[in-house]
Amino acid sequence: MSVTDANSPLAASLASQRVRGMAIVGGVIFAAALFGILTRPVGFLASFWPANAILLGMMVRNPRYARPEAWAAAFLGYIAADLVTGGSWHITLWLTIANMAGSVTGYFCFQFVTDKDRRLRHAISVLYLFGICCVLALVSALVGGGAVAVLFDRDLTQGVVFWWVTELANNLIILPPILTFPGFRMVASNLSSASAMSRANVVHWLPCLALILSVMAGVLIGGAGTLAFPMPALLWCALSYSLFTTSVQTMLLCIWLLIAIPAGIVAIPTLPDLINSLDSIRLGIALTALGPLTVASINSARRDLIDRLTQLATYDMLTGALSRSAFFERGQDRLGELVQTRGNIAVMMLDLDHFKHINDRHGHAVGDAVLKEFCALVSTHLRARDLFGRLGGEEFAVLLPATDLIEATALAERIRVAVDEAVIAMASSPHLDFSVSVGVSACRAELDTTIDTMLVKADHALYEAKAGGRNQVRVGSS
C-alpha cells in the first residue's frame, strides 16, 4: 500500500492535522473579529481590530497553518463574526476581502526575511517589521478604503488613509508579541521565577511599576503629552526585560491608548474632524511602539551574542566538554566550597590510547568521531555536580566533589570498561575499537590543596597506566 493512499494511517493523520488547523484558525479569527466588532464605537470602525494581525502572526509562526483550507477557514471566521452581529452581506464581503488581502500580503512579504528577523532577533528586524506592516496596510487600505467612504460618507482618499493608519497601528502593536512568543513553558517558568519574593525580584519589577505609574499620570494630567509620558519607563523595560515581555508591555500600553483616548478616559486635544483626529492618534501610537521594540530587539541580539561568546569560551566546540580554562575556574570554585567542610575531592586524568595512530590511519574525521563518542560515554557516568573538561588533544580531566579514592577508582574502571566495549562504525571496515588509560588522585580538601597539584598526581598515575600497557586505571600517590 502506498504511503499516499487515502486510507493509509499517514494520510489519515495528515487529514486530521489539516482539519484541526482549520478549526483553530477559523475559531481564533472568529473570536478576534467578534471582539473587534463588539468593542468598536457606535457608528465607526473598530478602534482596535486584532484579527488581521493575529491571522498573520499565526501563519508566520506556524507555517503548517498556511494552507489554502486554513486561509478559507479564516475567511469564514470573519464572515461569521460580522453576520452574527448584524452586518450586511455586501459590506461584510468587502471588509473581509480587505482584511484577508492585508494578511496574505504580509505573509508573502515575511518570506523575504530570515527566521531571526521574523522573531525580531536582529538590530534591524523592527525596521523590517515596520516596512512589511506599511506594505500590507497599504494593500488592505486600497481594497477596503472605499468601505469607509461608503459607511461614513467620506471621500476615497480619507477612507484609504483611515484604513491604512488603523491597519498599520494594529499590526505594529499585536504582531511583536506573537512573533517573539517563546512558548507556554518558558513563560510559565519565567513567571514562577519572577513571583518569588526576594530583593532581586523586587528590583526586577521596578520598570514595570514605573510604567504603570506613568500611565496613571497620563490619565490624571491629560493633554497631548499623554502619549509620551510612558516612554522613559517603557525604554527602561526594554533594557531590563526580554524581547517578548517588552512586546507584551508595549502592546498593552498601545491597546490602552487606542481604547482610552477615543472613549475620553484620557483627555487630549482633538481636531474638528474626528476621523482625521483618530488617524493622527493611531499613527502616533503606532510609531511610539517602534522605539522600545527596537531597543529590546537590539538588547536581545546583544544577549544572544554574549551567550554565544560565553558558550565558545566555556565549552569545547567538538566534544561539548568544558574548555581547559573553564575546567580550572569551575574546579577551583568547587574546591573552595569543599575546603570549608574539609570534604573529599578526587580527579581523574584520561587519555585515549594510540589516538595519533587512529588519526593517521583513518583520518581526522574518524578521530573526531572517536572523541565525541568518548565524551558521550564519560558524560553518562558522571553526576550533575561533576566537572568534565578537555585539557588538550585527546587528554581529558574529571573533577569529582565529595568523592573518595575508592569511589573515584571504581568510577574510573566503569568508564574504562564502557570505552573498551564501544565501537565506531566505519565505511571501510566493520568497526573501530578504542580504549582509554586513566590516572586517579584523591584527597581531603585543605587550604593548601590545589587543582594543579591533584592533576599532577593523577597525571603521574596516568603515565604509569600508559607505561604498564594502556587500557587500565592507576592510582596516584597521596
UniProtKB/TrEMBL annotation:
Swiss-Prot/TrEMBL keywords: Membrane, Transmembrane, Transmembrane helix
Molecular function terms, GO-annotated: diguanylate cyclase activity
Gene3D superfamilies linked: 3.30.70.270
Any one Gene Ontology cellular component term annotated for this protein: plasma membrane
Transmembrane segments: 21-38, 97-114, 126-149, 161-181, 202-221, 227-244, 251-271, 283-301
Gene Ontology terms: biological process: cell adhesion involved in single-species biofilm formation; negative regulation of bacterial-type flagellum-dependent cell motility
Annotated EC: 2.7.7.65
Class of this enzyme: transferase
SMART domains named in the record: GGDEF (SM00267)
NCBIfam families: GGDEF
PANTHER family per UniProt: DIGUANYLATE CYCLASE DGCM-RELATED, REGULATORY COMPONENTS OF SENSORY TRANSDUCTION SYSTEM
Name of the protein: diguanylate cyclase
Native species: Aminobacter anthyllidis
